[in-house]
């Protein structure tokens, strides 16, 4: 896996501008912050943590690990809640994903399909050949 960072650009914090990789592609549908019992945490950081746990569980089914993630698209319902939770988000990310920063996009949306969902993340991973 190779980080793509155009010369002279400032290094982004918490993500990469681009990634190149060869291997088996794994596509993870949008994961939301519910448990296997369909229960949601009430706050953004708790749901975010569960989203990562759910994403890692799907990756594991393909034999992939968090460090194989090349792209994440985050859909959030409240920019302020995201900003207020950024410390807890970072802590959960480092604990579950580590110091691996794939390409990421964060988009604020009006709502998600599940009314209680505050965040949904879809991911792509590449298991090295």
What would your notes on this structure say?
With 129 residues, the protein is an alpha+beta fold. It contains three helices and six strands; from the N terminus they run βββαβααββ. It has one domain: 2-Layer Sandwich (60s Ribosomal Protein L30, Chain: A). The strands form two sheets. A four-stranded mixed β-sheet has the order 3-6-4-5. Helix 1 packs parallel to helix 3. 26% of the residues are buried.
Could you provide a short overview of the structure?
The chain has a four-stranded mixed sheet. A two-stranded antiparallel sheet has the order 1-2. It has three helices and six strands. The protein has helices at 44-61, 79-84, 86-96, and strands at residues 2-4, 18-20, 23-32, 69-76, 103-108, 119-128.
C-alpha end-to-end distance: 10 Å
**Radius of gyration from the alpha-carbon trace, in angstroms:** 15 Å
* Strand residue percentage: 25-35%
Oligomer designation: single chain
- The total strand number stands at 6
Average of the residue pLDDT scores: 95
Query: How many H/I helices?
Result: 3
- Our count of domains comes out at 1
The CATH topology corresponds to 60s Ribosomal Protein L30, Chain: A
State the CATH superfamily name. RutC-like
For the largest beta-sheet, the strand count, sense and barrel status come to: 4 strands, mixed
Topology readout:
Layout lengths: L1 E3 L13 E3 L2 E10 L11 H18 L7 E8 L2 H6 L1 H11 L6 E6 L10 E10 L1
Parallel strand pairs: 4-5
Antiparallel strand pairs: 1-2, 3-6, 4-6
Helix pairs in contact: 1-3
Q: What keywords describe this structure?
A:
two-stranded antiparallel sheet, 129 residues, alpha+beta, 6 strands, globular, 27% helix
């Amino acid at each position: 896996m190779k980080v793509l960072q155009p010369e002279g650009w400032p290094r982004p914090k918490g993500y990469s501008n681009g990634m190149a990789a060869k291997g088996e592609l794994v596509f993870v549908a949008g994961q939301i912050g519910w448990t296997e019992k369909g229960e949601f945490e009430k706050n953004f950081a708790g749901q975010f943590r569960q989203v990562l746990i759910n994403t890692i569980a799907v990756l594991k089914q393909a034999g992939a690990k968090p460090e194989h993630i090349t792209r994440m698209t985050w859909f959030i319902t409240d920019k302020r809640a995201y900003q207020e939770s950024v410390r807890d988000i970072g802590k959960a990310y480092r604990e579950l994903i580590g110091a691996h920063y794939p390409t990421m996009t964060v988009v604020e949306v009006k709502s998600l399909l599940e009314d209680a969902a505050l965040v949904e993340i879809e991911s792509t991973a590449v298991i090295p050949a």
